[in-house]
């Protein structure tokens, strides 16, 4: 009878606890007043929509500038093709590597919301300066009354100052905004966890919509109305969405910074080196771990058998035991969770390195692909009613491809694969990333075929029209396949990388995780510039005429061979990536879930089950 009463009491306590979890959010977040968030009135989509709105505006601005920048540098600043491509790649590289600093500051010291707000204002200053460089007479490229054969130095200074202010703004904006949006979904709540799986897909859908408008409407205004008017539109749009983002502050859930996320990793390394002569523990149960009550503010991780050297950091020396709450030296003893976080970070390095060639392919879309469009027939219609498409607007085809792949994946593939595999995600993250890498090989191969055909057509046009040729005969829509294929790949690889670097980093490094994802694109841009320099140098020496694969203009170059080189590099890297992904061990969380316990023995199974 007494046992029955105790069981009934436990059941009542469990029901009360679950009812409390349904009312309040217990994931260590707080509301805008620093109190425990009420689940019904904070977070999820009601908060995420405010965050996605400002992301739409930022992507509108970034792609409106980035995709047509090479055209501006060659047409207005008068840089040659090689110099302009390097300038764009350097700027894109800095823009996508700066988030490493912003992400670190947010995770360690400030939290995400303040960094987003400040960096958005810096971004707005950069856009305002860009607008001033076009509308203030003394800052314009040259006098409007004369042809712009030589650009004023002051305009170049103001232009690049504005561009790199935008880079600094992106440094805080990009890593924090996406992870701040993901923070609005509680991982320990089954229903919110499912919504979070869709969050990254719809985030990228909104991103693509901003991209699509940026490379069509904004680029059209730049080419056929005025660069200044286009910059003014971007500035006003950013100002409005910053205000919108700020008004949603009462709906957000805020995670407090936990100090430098790098310090625990360094402590694990030091502790493991100090105990390097100790034998490996016979059982993971003998390793030190903080109790659940001591770690109520953070998730604990299960032990894995990879990189076992670092397990020594969690060995209790000399048979010592620590009582609950007893202090210990973190430079001599680490918890199993800290050791596993160190393993997570180290396991990411091969994935990051093998993703870089995909980033190189992405860099081609905003540089050489656009310049190919400039050299092709962009007219739609005939006679006096023809309309010429801006060259940078061809980039929209990549956005269309990404929207198609994200929509098909979310609405068709995931429901089907969930039923067939029993996995909440459909397929695991690394499979999704690898599938997208196949598209990069295909895109570069198609680009090589198209460019070889364009060069043959150009030579034919020279023969038929003479050196004064004004109408290329090859349509710009020949570029559609390479843009669409690369866009389809983006929908798998880039979205997968976002999810991977947010999900698999230690919980205290999630802004930095998004920054690491962005560094794949930034590193790809720098690597693209490096490859251009090396390829140009090597091929000039190999060719007796002194002409390399990347010349001063498109028609004196052999970009088709450069594209074949990229296809080969991506194919080799894909094989290496598959070998790494097959051996990968996912984060294995000891879960405190509202509905059911979700702690698995196998890390990959746990990861897949929770998405």
Enumerate how many helices there are, as a single number.
Answer: 17
Compute the CA-based radius of gyration. Answer: 27 Å
Please give the number of β-strands: 6
- Placed side by side, the strands forming the largest sheet appear as 1-2
Compressed to H and E, one letter per element, the order equals HEHHHHHHHEHEHHEEHHHHHEH
Distance between the termini: 43 Å
- Portion of residues in beta strands equals under 5%
Shape: globular
**Model regions low in confidence, pLDDT < 50 over at least 5 residues:** 12-17, 593-611
**Class derived from helix and strand content:** mainly alpha
Mean pLDDT: 81
Percent range for helical residues?
Answer: 55-70%
What profile does the largest beta sheet have?
2 strands, antiparallel
Short characterization:
The protein has 611 residues and is mainly α. It has helices at residues 2-23, 44-75, 81-97, 99-110, 112-135, 153-182, 190-224, 227-247, 262-274, 336-365, 368-374, 396-421, 429-465, 480-503, 510-542, 559-582, 603-610; strands spanning 29-30, 254-255, 300-301, 379-380, 387-388, 589-590.
């Amino acid at each position: 009878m007494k046992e029955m009463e105790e069981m009934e009491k436990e059941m009542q306590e469990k029901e009360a606890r679950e009812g409390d979890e349904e009312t309040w959010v217990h994931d260590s977040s707080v509301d805008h007043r620093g109190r425990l968030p009420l689940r019904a009135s904070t977070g999820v989509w009601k908060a995420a929509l405010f965050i996605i709105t400002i992301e739409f505006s930022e992507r509108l601005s970034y792609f409106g500038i980035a995709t047509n920048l090479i055209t501006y540098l060659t047409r207005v600043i008068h840089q040659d093709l090689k110099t302009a491509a390097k300038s764009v790649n350097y700027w894109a590289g800095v823009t996508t590597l700066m988030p490493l600093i912003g992400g670190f500051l947010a995770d360690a010291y400030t939290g995400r919301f303040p960094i987003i707000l400040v960096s958005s204002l810096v971004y707005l200053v950069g856009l305002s300066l860009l607008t001033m460089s076009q509308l203030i007479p003394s800052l314009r490229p040259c006098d409007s009354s004369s042809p712009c054969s030589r650009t004023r130095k002051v305009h170049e200074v103001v232009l690049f100052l504005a561009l790199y202010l935008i880079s600094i703004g992106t440094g805080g904006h990009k890593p924090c905004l996406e992870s701040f949006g993901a923070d609005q979904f509680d991982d320990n709540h089954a229903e919110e966890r499912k919504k979070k799986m869709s969050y990254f897909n719809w985030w990228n859908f909104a991103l693509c919509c901003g991209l699509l408008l940026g490379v069509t409407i904004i680029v059209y205004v730049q080419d056929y109305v005025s660069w200044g008017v286009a910059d003014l539109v971007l500035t006003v749009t950013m100002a409005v969405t910053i205000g919108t983002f700020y008004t949603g502050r009462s709906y957000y859930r805020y995670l407090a910074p936990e100090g430098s996320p790098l310090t625990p990793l360094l402590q694990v390394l030091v502790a493991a080196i100090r105990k390097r002569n100790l034998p490996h523990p016979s059982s993971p149960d003998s390793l030190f771990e903080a109790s659940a009550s001591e770690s109520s503010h953070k998730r604990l991780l299960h032990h894995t058998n990879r990189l076992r050297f670092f397990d020594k950091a969690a060995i209790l020396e000399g048979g010592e035991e620590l009582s609950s709450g007893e202090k210990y030296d973190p430079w001599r003893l680490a918890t199993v969770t800290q050791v596993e976080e160190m393993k997570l970070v180290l396991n990411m390095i091969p994935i990051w390195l093998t993703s870089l060639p995909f980033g190189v392919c992405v860099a081609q879309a905003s540089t050489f692909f656009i310049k190919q469009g400039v050299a092709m027939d962009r007219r739609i219609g005939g006679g006096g009613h023809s309309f010429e498409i801006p060259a940078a607007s061809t980039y929209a085809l990549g956005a269309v491809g990404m929207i198609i792949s994200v929509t098909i994946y979310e609405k068709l593939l995931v429901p089907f694969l969930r039923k067939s595999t029993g996995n909440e995600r459909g397929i695991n993250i690394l499979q999704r990333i690898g599938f997208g890498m196949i598209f990069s090989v295909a895109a570069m191969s198609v680009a090589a075929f198209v460019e070889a055909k364009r060069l043959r057509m150009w030579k034919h046009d020279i023969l038929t029209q003479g050196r004064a040729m004004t109408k290329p005969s090859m349509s710009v829509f020949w570029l559609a396949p390479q843009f669409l294929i690369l866009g389809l790949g983006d929908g798998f690889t880039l979205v997968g990388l976002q999810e991977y670097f947010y999900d698999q980093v230690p919980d205290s490094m999630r802004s930095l995780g998004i920054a690491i994802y962005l560094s794949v694109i930034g590193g790809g841009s720098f690597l693209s510039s490096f490859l251009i320099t090396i390829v140009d140098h090597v091929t000039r020496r190999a060719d007796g005429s002194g002409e390399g694969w990347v010349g001063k203009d498109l028609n004196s170059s052999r970009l088709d061979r450069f594209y074949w080189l990229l296809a080969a590099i991506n194919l080799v890297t894909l094989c290496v990536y598959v070998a790494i992904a097959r051996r990968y061990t996912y984060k294995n969380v000891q879960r405190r879930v509202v509905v059911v316990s979700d702690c698995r023995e196998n890390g990959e199974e746990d990861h897949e089950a929770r998405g």
